[in-house]
Amino acid sequence: MHPVIALVGRPNVGKSTLFNYLTRTRDALVADYPGLTRDRQYGRGRIGERNYIVVDTGGLGDDPNGIELGMQQQAMIAVGEADLVVLLVDARAGLTAADEDIATQLRRLGKPVVLAVNKVDGVDSRLATTDFHSLGLGEPYGISAAHGRGVPGLLEQVFAGLPETAADNESALARLQSDPDSVRVAVVGRPNVGKSTLVNRLLGEERVVVFDLPGTTRDSVFIPFEKDGRRYTLIDTAGVRRRSRISEAVEKFSIIKTMQAIDAAQVVVLVLDAHEGVAEQDAHLVGHVLEAGRGLVIAVNKWDGLGQSDRDEVRRLLSVKLGFVDFANIHYISALHGSGVGLLYDSIQQAHASALRDMSTTRLTQILEDAVASHPPPLVRGRRIKLRYAHQGGRNPPLIIIHGNQAEQVPRTYRRYLVNTFRRVLQLEGTPVRLEFRTTENPYAGKKNTLSPRQLARRQRLMRFVKKKK
Length: 470
Hints:
six-stranded mixed β-sheet, alpha/beta, Rossmann fold
């Protein structure tokens, strides 16, 4: 599983700016205004071969009340989910009483903490970090989140400080991935949509506890089994607690566990509740699946209790809100009674086979040439984009690398046309397809043309002629 890093600190110290830099996105709103971030924001990042999950939190105030109290509770939940905490402080504001209070809270929680002193651009970082040694959180690291200064060194310290449990999770995932014949399937969805019921139906036994209350366990459940001679590993993220262990009527599920289950899987089964339609959280989960590049199968549960008009409305909502994943097969099922559940296996196997398919360079190049001949790319500044050949660059998801001239100028609409063409011709169902464009470099760029002796003699004659004319 990928390690989880939580960003905490006072308002307006640059947590969202650092979040956007670490995830290479603009998902978190950034403005010179304290208290802009209120809820937890999740994102993925990668440095070298290391992947991680980042959690942005709201600012922790001196005396929280009202909405600020809710923001602090959200931040503490993120700290509880994290493997390591990055405490951000402001070099320009200096050490404050609020910084000392936050550091005290983090020490009580016993989480590994790395101290980052932000906004050191334009000043000596050694002088800017001097006062923060008194927090007792180790060596402060001066960074500029807006420009990325010092952030790579900060990440090195973060990975060095990750606890052994995070490394154990990585090794457990490596062991799962070492079995090439097993299909890893994650069952995800909002609380109380029937994920555990579906897992039990797929297994044919009461393997996980089912109870009619939304909630979640702390860890995902990995269940290996075999069906029709094929090995599977089901990853159940529902994990409804036993009745005796439920302390609240409704418990929030952790998006962290869902994201980690998606990363560990090869195919994701998204379970929706037909009675509730398609919620915003469902679209967020689909976004995480696409970002991770996993195969996708959509299971609309509790279908047996709907009338015809309600069924038509659900189908309409699916086409409107989830139309961007038209490659995914949709099944209308009843996990409780088993209707339609058996068909999920065919879609899972199809998505798995499509995600891991080997594609020859000759075949991909032929498809590219046919697509360009049928619909040429548009002109860019009066010059035609020339796409020459394509080859496979990766699997799960399928990555197709296209070489050509001005390839980086290919517009988004034409990229979508190429994706749809490759998917249709290669019959890639249930998996996203990614394209990467590379511009062919000029082998003679920056090189001087070496003249032959005959060319040199001719050049000398021309120079003598020019001098005579003058």
